[in-house]
Amino acid sequence: MPWGVAAAAVVGAVSSDRAADKAAKGQKKGMEQSLDITNRARQDVMNLFDQSAKSSRLGMEQAMEYYKKAATQRMTPFLQGNRAAQNAIGAGAQQAQNAILGLPVNMAAISQPQPVQQHSTYMIGAEIPDYPAKQ
Amino acid sequence: MAQPANIMTTTATGVGLPWNANSNMVMPAVQQTGIGAVPPTGLIGAEQALNTGVAGANQAIGNAMTGLDQNAAQQMQANLVGANGPEAQAAAQAQLQQSPATAYQMEQMQRATERSAAARGGLLGGNVLQELQRNAAGIASQDYQNQFANIGEVATRQSAQDQFKAGLYRDLADTAMSAGITRAGMRQQAGSQLAQTATQAAGNISNLLNQQGVAISDMMAKDISTLTDMIYQSGMQESINSQQLAAILANIAGGQASTVQTGNIGIGNANAAGAIGVGNAVQSGIQQGVGLYGTQQPQAVAPTYGSPSYGMVGTGQNYAGVA
């Protein structure tokens, strides 16, 4: 039966061709989906690295801003103390001059307590920045 | 106002030396401060002390000079000899004639002359009057000499006394000046010590105030540094967290992509294997049918191919919350 053998050969050839085609399609679809996932993951990673840079910069900027404001307040007690010290020396010189001249000497003018004012408002500015939410 | 000599006079300001009414010499006023009173110090106090010393010395010297100028016996001698003018001389001589001693001598001389004349029987005769006048002149001359000598002696003694007092006043002036200088030095030294104390106290207080400001500033600096570092570290930690999350997601995505790719390849291979198997079955059936064709009628066989589906297995789309 030559026609039967021929039909079987045709069926075998067709089925082999279909199998190859399905395998190729499967590989192609796998590669496409893998590439798509990789691209989206890359984009996500890039976004996260961008957030990372923003967060570190935000932290540094807020730290610098706080430091600038607080440093100004920090100078206040230093300047107050220095100014009070100068006043004390001036008052002492005045009283020393009085003593040398023979005028009344007022030691209380020297020993007036001059407390250095300390404000704790500098701590109020210390806040953690609002970092962007991770997406 | 006569006062006995060698009397200690007490004034409100001090104790005086022996006081003589004739010379009118008095002690200079001595400034004294009561116990517990605070004397003036410094240059003003020193100047006051020096001025007091100088004033005391001047007063002592002035008193001494006044005493020397006011030697009464010398003045009386000068009046007697006419050095102070004829009027003063006449007054001095009249005072001399009216003195009790001269009157007594005149009276005794007159009585003696009269008794002598009476004894000779010539009372109040011309010779008697001449003798009375001659004796009176002699007495007056003698009294004048005696008075001058006596006054001179008094003047000499008074001068010696005045010299002695002048020496005392000179010493007193020196003492007053020395006391003034010493007191001035003490007051100036006290002023300098006060000034030094004030300067030192001011320096100490100044250091305390300065240190107080520096200490508070340093404490604030530590707090500020700590808080600044905390803020900075929060940013860095947030950054690290994002990086770590990115790395984790990258790993997940990589694994997921690999799984999807492998799965799709497997699906393709499975479908291919199914197609081959179907083909082989059909081929085998055809061959068997051809072999049996001679004995019986062949029966038709409907081929059933597989239906491959690529599905969504392991696509990994949910790794980052993406639906």
Notable features of this structure?
heterodimer, A: mainly alpha, 74% helix, 0% strand, rod-shaped, B: 323 residues, disordered C terminus
What does this entry look like structurally?
The complex is a heterodimer of chains A (135) and B (323). The mean pLDDT of chain A is 85. The longest helix of chain A has 100 residues, at 2-101. Chain A is an all-alpha fold and 135 residues long. Chain A contains one helix and no strands. Chain A has one helix at 2-101. Chain B is rod-shaped, with a radius of gyration of 73 Å. Chain B has a two-stranded antiparallel ribbon with strand order 1-2. Chain B is built from five helices and two strands. Chain B is mainly alpha-helical. Chain B has helices at residues 42-69, 72-81, 86-97, 100-120, 126-292, and strands at 8-10, 15-18. In chain B, helix 4 (100-120) runs antiparallel to helix 5 (126-292). Mean pLDDT of chain B is 77; it is low at 1-25 and 303-323. The interface between A and B is large, with 94 and 99 residues.
Shape of chain B: rod-shaped
Measured on Cα atoms, how large is the radius of gyration of chain B? Answer: 73 Å
Helix content of chain B: over 70%
User: Helical element count of chain B?
Assistant: 5
**Total number of β-strand segments of chain A?**
0
How large a portion of the residues of chain B is in β-strands, by DSSP E?
under 5%
**Major sheet summary line of chain A:** none
Rg on CA atoms of chain A, Å? 43 Å
Q: How far apart are the termini of chain B?
A: 136 Å
General form of chain A: rod-shaped
Distance between the termini of chain A: 70 Å
Tally of separate helices of chain A: 1
Task: Determine the mean pLDDT of chain A.
Answer: 85
Indicate the proportion of strand residues of chain A.
Answer: under 5%
The helix fraction of chain A, in percent, is over 70%
- Average pLDDT reading of chain B: 77
Low-confidence stretches of chain B: 1-25, 303-323
